[in-house]
Amino acid sequence: KAGVTQTPRYLIKTRGQQVTLSCSPISGHRSVSWYQQTPGQGLQFLFEYFSETQRNKGNFPGRFSGRQFSNSRSEMNVSTLELGDSALYLCASSLGAGEEAFFGQGTRLTVV
Amino acid sequence: GESVGLHLPTLSVQEGDNSIINCAYSNSASDYFIWYKQESGKGPQFIIDIRSNMDKRQGQRVTVLLNKTVKHLSLQIAATQPGDSAVYFCAEKQANSGGGADGLTFGKGTHLIIQP
Questions:
Q1: Closest partner residue to A31 among B42, B100, B108, by Cβ?
Q2: Please, which residues bridge with residue A111 across strands?
Q3: CA distance B69 to chain A (A)
Q4: What are the 10-residue block averages of pLDDT along chain A, 112 residues in total?
Q5: Is A109 in contact with A76 (CB distance < 8 Å)?
Q6: Can you tell me the distance from the alpha carbon of A26 to that of A5, in angstroms, rounded to the nearest whole number?
Q7: How far from A18 is each of A55, A78, A79, B37, CA to CA, in Å?
Q8: How far is CA B4 from CA A53, A90, A100, A109, B22, in A?
């Protein structure tokens, strides 16, 4: 079966712009989590959605937001982009709590 | 704040030898630990997990050891192969939070290099 799909794979944006990233979980998976990966900070948890509800949130500013649709697909949005937002954004899906999670290949965001 | 860390950023081993990757955690409330492997250009891949009510868990060529007394986690890879070359991350979750990928705290990662 298809894995977690993230689009786009690469993105270049200008400081001050906003960006929307998309994640399609594995079919049947209802939990979607987002992570930011940078060389300096490593992998950091952004938020998690389950059945269209945000259940858990990391320590990121309000410029980072997300949502989940009824088909479990999820989007995350970053507004007023800063240079420091340049990172690999990873999405992971699982059936739910207590289940193994599978990561997508990520979206590489570069802010210039 | 509390976080999960790794002892070495890089580990170089000979092909065929056993590899041991270490991780220290500081959150005593953590009860679920996972090892991930990340190859270049890919997302993290689940290797093996362990809950705090266990000391050891074995998978195919991999073993995870958990020492709650000193808050130490290790991943042992037997007969290391070229395909094992990757960055390995340990991750932890706090008690009663279940499994899944939400709310994981990741270590910085150890880059495992396989020498021919």
A1: B100
A2: A13
A3: 24
A4: 91 98 95 94 92 91 97 97 98 81 95 98
A5: no
A6: 8
A7: 24, 6, 4, 31
A8: 28, 19, 20, 25, 11
pLDDT of residue B1: 32
Residue with tokens 């802010």: A111
Torsion of CA B99, B105, B107, B111, to 10 degrees: 50
For an interface test with B, the pick among A45, A51, A55, A99 (most B C-beta atoms closer than 10 Å) comes out as A45
Considering only CB atoms, A97 lies closest to which of B41, B99, B105, namely: B99
What is the structure's pLDDT at A11? Answer: 97
Query: How does pLDDT run across B23-69, given as a tens digit for each residue?
Result: 998 788 888 899 999 999 899 999 999 999 999 999 999 999 999 99
Residue B96 has pLDDT above 60, yes or no: no
**What is the structure's pLDDT at B95?**
54
State which residue of chain A sits closest to B31, comparing Cα positions. A98
Tokens of B92: 């932890």
CA distance A76 to chain B (A): 15
Q: Chain B interface residues facing chain A, Cβ-Cβ under 8 Å? A: 36, 41-46, 49, 89, 91, 97-109
User: Would you state the pLDDT for residue B7?
Assistant: 60
Under an 8 A CB cutoff, do B45 and A104 touch? no
Kindly list the residues from chain B whose CB atom is less than 8 angstroms away from the CB atom of residue A98.
Answer: 98-100
> Residue B85: CB partners within 8 Å, gap ≥ 6?
B39, B112, B113, B114
Please give the single-letter amino acid code of residue A63. Answer: R
